[in-house]
């Protein structure tokens, strides 16, 4: 069931998500950006929590992964005017 395309998409997603969280951590409420800063969760713990939630959500709702989502979108736009 696995595809090379899905592996590449997953690697890009897993590589980009921590960078996005780190970049926008000062805007997210409740995130502790410095050692003595205010907040109830650190950036590292937030990364771990988001990864865990995403793994569970993908296993439950989209077992084919990001490649399955991409293939559905591509098929939809290929047959768009005549979807029957």
Automatic annotation (TrEMBL):
Any idea what this protein is called?
A: Branched-chain amino acid transport system / permease component
Transmembrane regions listed in the UniProt entry: 39-61
Tell me which UniProt keywords the record has, alphabetically: Membrane, Transmembrane, Transmembrane helix
The source organism is Actinokineospora soli
Quick check: keyword Membrane in the entry?
A: yes
């Amino acid at each position: 069931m696995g595809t090379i395309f899905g592996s590449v998409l997953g690697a890009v997603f897993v590589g980009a998500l921590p960078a996005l969280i780190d970049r926008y951590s000062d805007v997210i409420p409740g995130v502790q950006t410095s050692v003595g800063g205010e907040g109830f969760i650190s950036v590292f713990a937030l990364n771990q929590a988001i990864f865990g939630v995403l793994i569970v959500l993908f296993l439950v709702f989209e077992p084919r992964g990001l490649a399955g989502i991409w293939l559905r979108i591509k098929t939809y736009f290929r047959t768009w005017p005549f979807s029957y």
